[in-house]
Automatic annotation (TrEMBL), chain A:
Membrane-spanning intervals of the chain: 6-27, 39-59, 79-102
Pfam families associated with the record: AzlD (PF05437)
Domain of life: Bacteria
Name of the protein in its database record: AzlD domain-containing protein
TrEMBL record, chain B:
Membrane-spanning intervals of the chain: 21-50, 56-78, 137-157, 163-182, 189-207, 213-232
InterPro entries for this protein: Brnchd-chn_aa_trnsp_permease
Membrane-topology annotation of the record: Multi-pass membrane protein
Family membership: Belongs to the AzlC family.
Protein name: AzlC family ABC transporter permease
Protein keywords: Cell membrane, Membrane, Transmembrane, Transmembrane helix, Transport
Compartment(s): Cell membrane
Record keyword Membrane present: yes
Length: 108, 234
């Protein structure tokens, strides 16, 4: 492993770690104002939606995003499994099997 | 998932998410292998950086010989959403020691954050360090192991995606988002669905101008503001 790789890993690790722990240290010593709590209470639903939607889109610099069709197709049975079972494991397994089948039949 | 916040229940609750870590971790190890990164480099990256999408970017930028400063800046931008997640979850650990807080924050991921937000809907908005430590540590070890195995087996498996494992992480967020919407009693279903719709549309428009990870951060901030406005209006 070259120094170039090692230094990159160490510095990338440092900025990531700071993003993770500095908010903990700040919130720990701060009386969080009501508006900020209200704002942050929407982080879970907003960020999970954003992560999911990002996986359905394909970024093309300077153009409208495309659609990741195989992820969109595989999401349909996964969502149905969620509605029917309310089980995280069932959603994951259904999605993976659906994706494997899509690729097997060449729709991916 | 039940209301129990023991170390053991943390272990049990994190299991469904492990498929995501294994699928993406194997793929990452394989990509690293084909990019001529050593097993040691992959292990160190998984243990020190510990962030899926950032690690993919780092590997591709290392391969392209990008300047270290550019790689570190990209990593920061991709992971800047961690700031929002940490700030959001830290409220539940204010009474715990600073060391506990730093340890919990050090291993927080998208997945264990989302899992925690599902958990609080079962526990009357309580979290305990031991529960999150269990989830975090298992996820951390499984991720590191999966990336190393992927790197070792790199030349054997030509196309890991053939088995659909890369979809595990998307499936997991579908499950976590759905459970979040139906179990979060602190907000009306209508409010939650409006936020989902708003963020989804915002993502499409934002990805006209920004790569996915940056769009994700902006859409989340806008979505939180939108959520507050909708609640105030009701």
């Amino acid at each position: 492993m070259t120094n170039y790789v090692l230094v990159t890993i160490l510095l990338s690790g440092l900025v990531t770690w700071l993003s993770r722990v500095v908010p903990f240290a700040i919130i720990k010593n701060l009386t969080v104002p009501k508006w900020l709590i209200d704002f942050l209470s929407f982080v879970p639903v907003a960020i999970m939606t954003a992560i999911f939607v990002e996986s359905l889109l394909v970024y093309h610099a300077g153009q409208w995003p495309g659609f990741n069709l195989e992820n969109i197709y595989a999401s349909i049975p996964a969502i149905l499994a969620g509605v029917l079972t309310k089980s995280l494991l069932a959603v994951v397994i259904t999605g993976v099997i659906a994706m494997a089948l899509l690729r097997l039949v060449g729709w991916g | 998932m039940d209301a129990s916040l023991t170390f053991k229940s943390g272990f049990k609750d994190v299991i469904p998410t492990l498929f995501g870590y294994i699928g993406v971790g194997l793929a990452m190890g394989i990509v690293a292998n084909t990019s001529h990164l050593s097993v040691l480099a992959v292990l160190l990256m998984s243990l020190i950086v510990y962030a899926g999408s950032a690690q993919f970017i780092i590997i591709s930028m290392l391969l392209a010989g990008s300047p270290i400063s550019a790689i570190v800046l990209s990593t920061f931008l991709i992971n800047s959403r961690m700031i929002l997640m940490s700030m959001s979850i830290a409220q539940y650990f204010k009474k715990d020691s600073l060391w506990q807080n730093l340890a919990l924050g050090s291993l927080l991921t998208d997945e264990t954050f989302a899992l925690s937000m599902n958990k609080i809907n079962q526990t009357d908005h309580q979290l305990r360090p031991r529960w999150l430590h269990a989830a975090n540590i298992i996820a951390y070890l499984v991720w590191a192991a999966a990336t190393v195995v992927g790197c070792l087996l790199g030349h054997l498996i030509a196309d890991p995606n053939q088995f659909g494992l890369d979809f595990a992480v998307v499936g997991m967020f579908i499950g976590l988002l759905y459970l979040q919407i139906i179990t979060d009693r602190s907000k009306t279903l209508k409010t939650q669905l409006l936020v989902v719709l708003f963020v989804a549309i915002a993502m499409y428009f934002l990805m006209r101008f920004f790569p996915g990870n940056i769009a994700l951060l902006i859409a989340t901030l806008l979505g939180c503001g939108f959520g507050m406005a909708v609640t105030a209006h009701d």
